[in-house]
Design a protein that fits this description.
alpha+beta, single chain, six-stranded mixed beta sheet, globular, 14 strands, 7 helices, 24% helix
Length: 266
Amino acid sequence: MKRLLENWRRFVNEAEDPVAEIQKIIQGDQYLSHLADQVTPETVKAFDSVYYIQFPGELQSEHLQKHFDQSSAGSTFSVSEDKVQDLILKTVSTPPHRAVEERGTKKLKWLNVKTREDIGHDTLVKRDPNDPNISMATDLETFGMVDSMISGDRVKDWSVVSGVAEQNDYELVTKEGAPYTEKDLANNVPAFIKQELGVVPGDKMQNPTKILNVITAQVGEVDEKPVLTLMSVFPGHSPVDASKKDIMDKKQFKDHGYYFLRGETK
């Protein structure tokens, strides 16, 4: 009888092992299946309301590394990657600000979280729309979807690229400014979103920020809790509208009083 009870307890523990269940979820994910062996008790962080998978190297993708490059035009971190990873865990341990579905992906977002110390430099500032220093400038933003297709993280599919561009009214171009084509995708040419932005003179390095933003993807659910992986993390303001919905189109930032600093970075 004692052995029977021990075997039953072992069976129950195995059946209820959240790490094993999360690994199965990742194995079945077309974009993350290659990371399934990295789902371990060390990388799965269990919190009251979510499970968060902190994959090794989660900050190494190009669209996140730009936030650690001080020469980048966007907002950048002034703290180490280890510190940012600690901040991510501290943030996702709290209730999210928004739970939304965008482009078929369920996302949990923590926006404009105030930390206790300066963590980076913000390229956005709030200005009166009548400020005479405001001007318009052409900006080329890397289109991350194409980057992931070029790197092999996603299957190349022109219909997806063109469909997302049309849905969001993106003007896709090459680095040289020529219209982006299906042939460019086939030849592994990076794509950029061309847009006109409101800018003001200034140096982001003189604009420190304590604000952090974390955006995660929900890849499944275990024990009635979302299982999350990192999509994006960045310092500085994430503009929101009157309903507290984050504004994803940078062209609209100026309509809400936010402008990009354009000046020397040191």
